[in-house]
Write a structure and sequence with these properties.
The protein has 95 residues and is of the alpha+beta class. The chain has a single domain, classed as Stage V sporulation protein G (Arylsulfatase, C-terminal domain, 2-Layer Sandwich), CATH 3.30.1120.40. It is 20% helix and 41% strand. The chain is built from 1 helix and 6 strands; from the N terminus they run ββββββα. Strands 1-2-3-4 form a 4-stranded antiparallel beta sheet, with helices on one face. A two-stranded antiparallel ribbon has the order 5-6. A hairpin with a 5-residue loop joins strand 5 and strand 6. The two termini are 22 Å apart.
């Protein structure tokens, strides 16, 4: 794969809503991705990559993995760190 997560910083959100955390990830000590979201919906958790709102009201990802292997690796690392920091039991949502 050639990419490894070298740092994960979790910022828990205090409001108790669907947005559980904002995450910053460093990849291979060379690239930082900010504003990754941990979201809970229907009792399950998932990771949402950074996006921006378009003029038509839709959202477009600004950073995203190009293959399933990297996506699964990022989600696993982020959700494991979120579970450790938050103390919440994480149930992954399958997509």
């Amino acid at each position: 794969m050639g990419i490894e997560v070298t740092r994960v910083t979790i910022g828990l959100t205090p409001d108790g809503g669907r947005l559980k955390a904002l995450v910053t990830v460093t990849l291979s000590d060379a690239l930082v991705i900010r504003d990754i979201k941990v979201i809970e919906s229907g009792g399950k958790h998932f990771v949402s990559m950074p996006s921006r709102k378009m003029n038509d009201g839709s959202y477009q990802a600004t950073v995203y993995p190009l293959n399933r292997e990297v996506k699964i690796m990022l989600e696993a690392v982020i959700l494991a760190e979120f579970e450790k920091i938050s103390g919440e039991r994480v149930v992954r949502r399958e997509r």
